[in-house]
Design goal:
Elements lengths: L1 H20 L8 E5 L9 H9 L8 E5 L2 H4 L18 E2 L2 E2 H13 L9 H28 L3 E5 L4 H12 L3 E7 L5 E5 L10 H12 L4 H14 L15 H8 L8 E4 L6 H5 L7 H11 L8 E4 L3 H4 L11 H8 L8 E4 L6 H6 L3 E4 L3 H8 L4 E3 L12 E2 L6 H11 L4 H17 L1 E3 L6 H7 L23
Parallel strand pairs: 1-2, 1-5, 5-6, 8-9, 8-11, 9-10, 11-12, 12-13
Antiparallel strand pairs: 3-4, 6-7, 7-14
């Protein structure tokens, strides 16, 4: 084991560094360190066949796999808190809480660790120890090898986020990939290295919508593509079985004439909730605030659609979510309120709930974007990637939640131009950040993403280049 570590740490890294120093010609191949330690999007075989050997990159990019054990060796020492608040601990200007809080929420099943619980403190100490080791190792590796880019699975996991932040500090391009809500589409982006609600369209989409003109035929084709894609949703996003609205009304006790307000929930400890909810500290406090705002006096039924994964899925370390949000709502007495309906069952179609809704409300759920695509008005209460693009309502402060919900219920469905804008935003996603899983037909986009150009094209006038008309 020590000999293997010696090879990894000194011999191989030194060879790579030497090869980089000897290949400073303008046309040299790019070096990308593959640090996708989780393979949640593309497995090893898919990465080798679809990305490494991709015709647009082959011969232009060298991919070097860096295993997690090379960055965080087994047996890495924990970082003792010694009574300190985890939020206050830093290393070389990095906030360990900022780096690790999303992972800790998933490991612990709660947003804030209970510091009176020795077992939870031990988890924090273990994660902090590995985070410091990751920061140290990444700094050494990147300074020695000096790659053109690193590739990782979104920066929400603490180890990926440590790698990302060191790379950004040292000026190394970070390319991130992540699953989308559709099983045949991936997110790939290099804007932040932290997909979630921070990809290129999340930050620049409003500007791009102002200038990228979409024709009616293209809009219709995009909308039909999305409708067809609903059948290929990833298992954790898939709901259905009970699709008939009348059957759902009978199941939930909703009168035929009632158009309920639908709250689209998420897994309480998902990174998108932990990191992208600036107005509410956690999911249950958000739901409680909405329940209080939707009083019985409004004559409105609130349907709370909890994420089905909480009833059947597991945390990062394999522990069942065990209905965490439902149990918290039950503790708060929300499940028994006469104007509230709770839906946990994955058999109940989320799309049927949206279709019967007067309006929808969410923190950052992708289902909120799908509701807008279905023509529903959506109130976004977190930093969702589709917010502030001209087809959603946004909550500016929790104090205005009551007023915002009243406006949501009053305005009704999206106007045609607003609905068109939602579809146009979907088209921009398809053009810029969504990639087919087989990575076919996106040669130009992949070359731009990895910062390479085909050598033979460099001397040609733009009009003669084969990729001049390739928007990806």
């Amino acid at each position: 084991m020590r000999l293997a570590n010696f090879y990894r740490t000194f011999f191989r890294d030194s060879l790579l560094a030497l090869s980089r120093a000897m290949s400073r010609a303008p046309d040299r191949r790019a070096l990308v360190l593959d640090m996708d330690w989780y393979r949640f999007s593309l497995n090893d075989e898919e990465m080798a066949n679809r990305l490494y050997a991709h015709p647009a990159l082959s011969g232009l990019v060298d991919f070097v796999r860096i295993d997690r054990g090379q960055v965080i060796p087994r047996g890495t020492r924990a970082l003792r808190l010694d009574g300190r608040n985890p939020r206050d601990i830093t290393w070389k200007g990095y906030s360990l809480w900022g780096l690790c809080k999303a992972s800790l929420a998933s490991f612990l099943g709660r947003i804030e660790p209970d510091l009176s619980d020795a077992a939870q403190v031990e988890v924090v100490e273990h994660v902090y120890g590995e985070a410091v080791q990751c920061l140290q190792s990444m700094e050494r590796i990147l300074l020695r090898i000096r790659p053109d880019a690193i590739l990782l699975f979104q920066g929400g996991f603490f180890d990926s986020r440590c790698a990302r932040e060191v790379a950004r500090r040292l000026g190394v391009r970070v390319i991130a990939l992540e699953n989308s809500m559709m099983s045949d589409q991936l997110f790939l982006d290099d804007l932040s290295g932290f997909i979630l609600n921070r990809h290129r369209l999340a930050r620049l989409g409003g500007d791009m919508l102002e200038v990228e003109v979409v024709g009616e035929d293209e809009r219709k084709t995009t909308y039909d593509w999305w409708r067809q894609s609903l059948a290929s949703k990833r298992p954790e996003h898939r709901t259905g079985g009970i699709d008939d609205p009348e059957e759902i009304r009978r199941l939930l006790g909703i009168p035929p004439e009632e158009a309920p307000l639908v709250l689209l929930g998420q897994v309480a400890t998902d990174a998108s909730v932990v990191l992208d909810s600036p107005l509410f500290p956690d999911l249950s406090s958000f739901i409680r605030s909405v329940v209080e705002a939707v009083r019985e006096g409004r004559h409105t039924i609130l349907v709370i659609r909890l994420h089905p994964k909480e009833a059947t899925g597991n945390t990062l370390d394999g522990k069942p979510y065990n209905r965490m949000t439902f149990r918290e709502l039950e503790r708060l007495g929300i499940t028994s309120l006469p104007h509230v309906r709770i839906v946990e069952d994955s058999r109940v179609s989320t799309y049927s709930l949206i279709r019967m809704a007067k309006g929808c409300i969410t923190l950052t759920s992708q289902a909120g974007f799908e509701a807008a695509l279905m023509g529903k008005r959506v109130l976004v209460c977190g930093d969702a990637f589709y917010a502030r693009k001209g087809f959603t309502m946004e909550l500016g402060h929790p104090a205005f939640l009551d007023t915002a919900i009243a406006q949501l219920l009053e305005e009704g469905d999206l106007l045609q131009e607003e609905h068109n804008r939602a579809i146009d935003f979907l088209l921009l996603m398809k053009r810029h950040v969504l990639y087919p899983r087989d990575l076919r037909g996106v040669d130009g986009r992949l070359r731009r993403l990895f910062g390479v150009r085909r050598e033979a094209q460099r001397a040609l006038p733009i009009a003669q280049r084969s990729d001049a008309q390739d928007p990806g």
